[in-house]
Each structure stands twice: as C-alpha cells, then as structure tokens.
Amino acid sequence: MSEIQHLQPSMSADFDSRNLDWYIDRIVQSLVFIAGISAIIFIIGIFVFITMEGFGFLLEDFTFREFFLSPFWEPSDEDAPEYGILALVAGTASVTGLAMVVAIPFSLGAAIFIGEFATGKLRESLKVLVELLAAIPSVVWGFIGLSIMNPLIIDLFDVPVGLNVLNAGIILGLMAAPIMTSIAEDALKAVPDRYREAAEALGATRWQVIFKTVLPAAKNGLLGAVLLGVGRGFGETMAVLMATGHAVNIPSSLFDPVRALTATIAAELGETAVGSPHYQALFTIGIFLFIITFLINLSADLIVRGIRKG
Amino acid sequence: MFAESALNVRNKRVQNLYRILFLMMTVLLVIPVIIILSTLIAKGGSIISIDFLFTDPTNGMTAGGIFPALLGTVWIVAVALLASVPLGVAAAIYLNEYAGDNWFTRMIQLAIINLAGVPSIVHALFGVGAFVIFFGFGTSILAASLTLAIMTLPVVIVSTRESLRAVPQAFREACWNMGATRWQTIKRVVLPNAVSGILTGVILEVSRTTGETAPIMFTGAAFFLPFLPQSVFDQTMALSLHLFVVATQVPGVPENLPYGVALVLIAMVLLMNSISIAFRMYLRGKKKW
Amino acid sequence: MVDMSLTAAVPETVVESAVESPIKLQVSDVTIKYSATPALSGVNLSVHEHEIFGIIGPANAGKTSFLKALNRMDTFNSNMTVEGQIHFNGLDIHNLRNIYALRSRIGVVFPLPVGLPLTIYENVALSPRLRGINNKGDLDIIVERCLTRAALWDEVKDRLNSLGSLLSGGQQQRLTIARALSQEPDLLMLDEFSIAVDPVTTMRIEDVLKELKKDMTIILVTNLVQQARRLADRTAFFLEGQCVEIGITEDLFTGEVEDQRTRDYVEGKFG
Lengths: 310, 289, 271
Description:
The complex is a heterotrimer of chains A (310), B (289) and C (271).
Chain A: H1 2-6, H2 9-13, H3 20-59, H4 64-69, E1 73-74, E2 82-83, H5 86-117, H6 120-135, H7 138-157, H8 165-189, H9 193-201, H10 206-217, H11 219-235, H12 238-243, H13 261-268, H14 277-309
Antiparallel strand pairs in A: 1-2
Helix pairs in contact in A: 3-14, 5-8, 5-11, 6-8, 7-8, 8-11, 9-10, 11-14, 13-14
Chain B: H1 2-44, H2 50-54, E1 57-58, E2 63-64, H3 67-98, H4 103-117, H5 120-134, H6 141-165, H7 169-177, H8 182-211, H9 214-217, H10 239-249, H11 256-284
Antiparallel strand pairs in B: 1-2
Helix pairs in contact in B: 1-11, 3-6, 3-8, 3-10, 4-6, 5-6, 6-8, 7-8, 8-11, 10-11
Chain C: H1 4-9, E1 23-34, E2 37-48, E3 52-56, H2 63-70, E4 80-88, E5 91-92, H3 99-105, E6 106-109, H4 120-130, H5 136-149, H6 153-156, H7 169-182, E7 187-191, H8 199-212, E8 217-222, H9 225-231, E9 234-239, E10 242-248, H10 249-254, H11 260-266
Parallel strand pairs in C: 3-8, 3-9, 6-7, 7-8
Antiparallel strand pairs in C: 1-2, 1-4, 4-5, 9-10
Helix pairs in contact in C: 4-5, 4-7, 5-7
C-alpha cells in the first residue's frame, strides 16, 4: 500500500491514453493494409470483369466441343458463326514451343556463363545488357519481326512470305530469353558454394562441377525459369500479332503462318459490337488465357519456392 | 604420372571449350540488341529531327512528325504513375513493415506474381470491362492509364519492397525502443533511406509503361486524332500504338517513318532503363551504413 | 488518481529492500518463452526509484530477454511470449492503452550499438521530435546536454551534421546512450554497454550513471561483476533462465549468500 502512494500518477497517465501519433499509426496501418490487399482485389477483379463480359457467350453459344476442338474461328460468318480456338491454341503453342527451343539453350548457357564463369566488370556489363534486352517493348519486337526478320527469312529460305511460326518463334525466344536468363542465374546463385567446393575437393573440373553438381541442385529453379518463359510466350500479344502472319491455321511446318490467341483478341476486339456474341467470345478467350497463365505462374512459383525451402 | 597429366591437359582443354561455348551463347543473346539498334539507327536515324518530334503527322500519317503520339504517351504514363506509385509504395510498406509471415501474406505475394504474369491483352480486356464500361470512363486517358497502372503495379511493389528490405532491421528496433510508432519509424528512418531505391523502381516502371501497347489499344489510345487531349477523359494517340499503326495499318508509309518511330520509342525506353541501372549502381557505391 | 485496483495487483510479499524509496518496477512470476522454449522462468523482483539495479550472470541466463520484456519488445517478435505480471509505476504494462508512451519513458542501450542513418544531431534529436519538441533552441540544448552526459560531445561537437551510423563502434555506443538519455527516461536500462567502449570511456560513463541516479531509475545488466559492485545498489544473479538470488550488491561479494553458485560466480569460479 505505502509504495503506491509515492507514485507520481501524472507521469504514468500518458501510458494509458492514446495520443494523435497512436491514432495516426492505426490509420496508416489500415491504409497500407488496403493497398496491400489491392493486388488480390485486382486479380479477382480481372477474373470477375472478363467473366462478366464473356458470360453471355458462355451461357448461350458456348459448347465445350466446338470451342476447344473445332479448328474453325469464323465469328463473323453471318449464317453460321463458328467459335473454335483449336487452331489459335495450335498457333500459340507452336510459336511458344519454338520460342522455348530457341530460348532454353541460350538463356541457360548465358546464365551459366554469367553465373559461373564471368567475373567482375564483364559479369556486371553482361547483366546490364540482359536487363536492357528485357526492356525492349513488344511492339518494337513485332516491328523487328515485320521489317527485319521477314525479308531475311524470305531471302534465306526462299519462301514467299516470312511472317510465320519461325519468325514469331525466334522473336518470342529472344524476348523470353533475358527473363529466363536472370531467373536461371538466380537459381544457380542459390546453389551454396560448399557444393562447388566439395566437388572441387574431389578433383572435379569446373565443367564437371557445373554439370554434375550445380545444374542438378538448381533444377527446380531452372524449371521455374522455363515455366515463366512459357507463360510469357503464351501471353505475348503485339509481337505475335505482327510476326505470325495472323492466319487461322494449324501449322504443319515452320514456314506456315499462324494466329495466336492473344493476337486474335487484339486484332478483333476493336471491330466487334459491345455485347455481341463475337465480342463475348473474345472475352471467353481472355478467361481461358487468364486461367492458363494463372496456372503456369502458380506452378512456377511453387517450384521456385520449393528450392528456397529445401 | 604421365597418364594423369595427359588427363589434366584434356580436362583443361574441355573446360576451355565449354567456357567458349557458354560465352558464345551469351554473346549470341546479346548480339541481336546490337543488330536491332544499329538497323533502327541506320534506317530510321535520317528522319529524326526536332521537327519530327514536335510536329503533327500529315498526309494520312504518311508524313510529318509524331508530336501528338509523344505527348499522349507522356499523358498516359504520368496518370498511370499517379495511380500506381502511391498504391504500390503503400502495398510494399504493408508487406515489408506490417505483414506477418503467414498464409495471408503469401496470398498477396501470389496475387502480385500473377498480376505481373497475366497477359497484357487480358489486362486490356479487364480495362475495357471495368474502366471503359463499368465505371463509365469511356475510352480515355484515365481508363488506359488505370489499366496500365494495375498492370505495372508489381514493378513498383517489388522494387519498393527490395529497397525497404535493404534498410537494416536494427534501425527499426532502435526507433521502436525509443517509443516511436511503426509509422513514425517508417516516416523518419525507413523511407528516407529507401527513397532513392524506390525512385529506381519508378523509373523502371516509366520505361515499362511507355512501351506497352496492347493494354491501351481499346481503353484510351486512338489510331489517329486530329486534336490533342485536353483532359484525362479524352482519347489520345500514343507512341507505342503509333508504331503499330504506321507499321501495319497505313498503306504507303515511307520506309524510314516506322523505323524513326521505333527508334524514338526504343531510345526512350532504353534511356530510362539505363538511368535506372546507373542510379542503382551509384546508390550501391554510396552506403550510409 | 491512486487507483485501488492497482494496489490489488501488486503482490503483498515485498522483496528484501535496501532502499527506502518507492517501487518503480514490480515483476511478479514472469516467464519468457521463445516458441515453447523458456528463456527465463518464474522471476519475482522489484526495482526502487533512484536505485541502480544490477543484473549479472553468464551468457544465456535470460538477462537480455528480461530487458526486452520490460520494454514490451515482445510485440515485435511473434515467437516471444511473456507470462506473469510486470508493473511499471504501478501500471500493468500488458494492459496499457499506449505502449509507445511506455517505451518512450524507458531508455534502452543494447550491447551492439546502432547509430541511426541520420546525422549525429538528429540521432539525439529524434526522440524529442517524436514527443513534439521541434524548437531548434530547445533541441540544441537537449542534444548538447545528452551528448555531454554520454561523454561524446567533445569528440563530435564540430561535426554534428555527419552521419551517426558512420561513427566508430565505441562512439556509436555513446551515441546510443545519448539517444536513450534524450528520451528523458524514467527508467534507463543498459545491457552490457561497455562491450563496445574502451575502459577510460567506460569509467566516464559509470560516473555519469552515478549522477543520473538522482533523476532516474537504472537497470544495469553487466557481464563485469566488478562493474555491478562499483555501481549497483542491489544486484540480481541470473543463471540459465532462473533468478538465483537478489541482494544488496556488497552482500553478494562479502556477506551471506543464499545460494553458493552466486558466490562462485562473483568470485569468477565459472562464467
């Protein structure tokens, strides 16, 4: 009892009262929380809005069989419009596939060189170059496909038109390579140095260390890099619109023109009436693209996260 | 003895071969940039002049300059930044300074990764459905900029978060120990030491926003407009879309015109990226702790 | 203002006291855990106003965790839980409406000095500014007084605008002390402050602490038993997460001890 009476209540009072700073802190916390969840809101928003716009088509004209299995995309046929995306999927897949054939060896090779061989200034400058390569806008890449690659392919392979799977695949490969390089390099960097030291202590040479130790240890990260490259290829719009030739076609050779899912939306959305079946069908392609890229990004993230944990 | 050293020599040779192989691959990756840049300069350099930058296109866009497109890009980028920088910085502050390490935070991170991974044309569809139609902005700078803002939000969040993370935890704890609230700590110690890193990310975002085409095609950018935008509710021309238009949509364009447009666009983008990279390197050399 | 509920919360058993001043800090049955692992268990002690209360003990005894609990740093570490009751100025610190105000009245100096990436001047002016003091003249006075007390003024008075985070380790430690003093704390807690400081400066700071005792209560965690002997009125001995003994400091060295381990420790038989 006696001690309590000696206390100075005035001194302790402020512990039990909230001042302006306390409230400001709370308000800021709420505001940044809203900003923090905005990414979730936007992802849900994207799905909700494109589904809303494409919903009429999904209810009325959509049949799973026609949409996914028909190679005919003829939405403007007045008598019997047909909404089959098979040829568009084939177009996207062929271009993306070729892009990966181009990008995987080069980006992996570049990542190994930058991560395992290059040092100092050389390493820094290569990384800067790769970063600049990644910054070139896709419409510029499309223009390059159209104006530089196109005549080049016509000359080299003696074909009438140079806008085809080959052209778009190479362009897309060059676009995806820088991103894949930097993610692959991160994956190599994540392999602890003691792995390398242990292998070197056993007498392995540099390339043996890389092939037998570093690459196997980094394989999840490398797979994640490839998946993100695939996602990029699937979603790329302007470059494939300009470089593929834009013809609905299931390709049988590298020199066939094709049309991609994304390019179809970009080319046709401006010419359709809001709310028409064609307009809604384009949004339905959007839903399909959203789901596919969502799944690709999700699995890439899970795989990359896997290595960090392990 | 001899056998072993022979093996060593062989191994050395193989190692050198691999080294050269990987170097070649890296060089092959980088060479296209050089080829592309030199072709653009060779074919488009002749058209670039002050006049080209500051006059209107004439003769059905087959002649004249690119001024309305240039100005439109500035409009779109500026409005997009106004929306995405505060939002992105705040989101990064939440993630780095307030959020715990739990499933909810992981959900947000996953959403950010996916926001960056959604195809640009899907962002365009979202922009049409949400901003043009639902919120009634029509095809306008506002709709186009908001679409781009959401699309490039991950760039701001990720770069801001990285610069916040670079501020040592000990500084925050020292402040908290003195009775500073979290916000006082952020305002007085964390943000001042992260602001230059955030700026680097913002420049990077400007570069990204400048080059994007698909998201603005149906939300606010027009092929050709005879007037300049007066407010954010107007449509505008944009440099990236202008390149697409003169390269594919307009017949009878002289060859050097699209090259010139492409050169201006790529120069803007690469310049801003280089500034961002140079700034980052400068900051790395100038540590405060 | 003297609230009856506070009286009820304070246990009746009064720990043996050498000082006849009122109780500043009452710690009742406090256990600190990280996840499920206890760092300190069942501590009962009280600290009186205007005393220097020493805490000695080897590494991992729970000394630093104890200080963190007093400053409510458990709110920043989701693994850390504090059970039991801590009363500061008679108020239960786990039921405060504004723990920032509590922290602003408690100055802490940790073993590893942290100079904030602000100028030396702003390092010391930060706490007054947080309290709303922005007048340049007032701040100048506070900065000079605190730096002088922390035995740093003479070395830095000509470069108050250079970065505090770039000072040497020993200077940063004194800057940290100056910063703690700028809080005008009720309670000053020092955790092995002399680790980063040379012996001469340590002696100067020790003299300052003796002076400061008139204005505040001090808890001195130290790994140097002789430092505790020089400064502390009473001292607690922590060992392996237990508070082994609390007594008048001199008694631990020369008088009766309850636990032989205390005497063994102060005589340097283990540590």
